[in-house]
């Protein structure tokens, strides 16, 4: 009887309300498995600015300097880190340094100037992303495969890091040393070789 009553109450009792905060906490470790597509995540164009809109960047911008304010150039790294939630990659900072002339530490940027620069950087990265698409036709790919044509772009023009073990060889232009291992023989072997050369039986 008690077991049947407990079962009946569990069936008729309503489900607890959905807790989105608890669900997010329980699902956060799923990202530790890695990106859904490691090939697209490792593209040169897969930088932080491509995953954040101007509205999100503006929200962080106004949170730091206020609405209608200007941000100092030396605080650009702080702005990106705050907006992303992680430190931007050196490659991305290089783009920002070139676009906004951040080597000149003196100066400020308003939001319209920053917005125009962000759009310019996205246009550059969109062009870089096209390097990863070698073919748009299956027939062209088959033709190049049969004729052993090389790829139009090198792996370093597409990805941030080697995607396969083969790509690790020569990924960086390091100096190569060819170490030689000459044949070494003992005195007895050399004596026997000389006898053979003289057409004598060493045995």
Describe the protein's topology.
Elements: H1 2-12, H2 20-27, H3 38-41, H4 54-65, E1 70-72, H5 76-84, H6 90-100, E2 108-110, H7 111-129, H8 138-147, H9 165-168, H10 187-197
Antiparallel strand pairs: 1-2
Can you summarize this structure?
The radius of gyration is 31 Å and the shape is elongated.
Question: Could you explain how this protein is built, in words?
Answer:
- The structure is a single chain.
- The N and C termini lie far apart (about 100 Å).
- About 5% of the residues are buried.
- About 50% of the residues lie in helices and about 5% in strands.
- It has ten helices and two strands.
- It is elongated, with a radius of gyration of 31 Å.
- With about 200 residues, the protein is mostly helical.
Structural class: mainly alpha
Percentage of residues in DSSP E strands: under 5%
Going across the major beta sheet, what is the strand order? 1-2
CA-CA gap between termini: 101 Å
- According to DSSP, the number of beta strands is 2
Element pattern in H and E: HHHHEHHEHHHH
Gyration radius, in Å: 31 Å
The percent of residues in helical segments reads 40-55%
Helix count from the secondary structure assignment: 10
Mean pLDDT: 79
Largest sheet features? 2 strands, antiparallel
Shape: elongated
Oligomer: single chain
- Unreliable runs: none
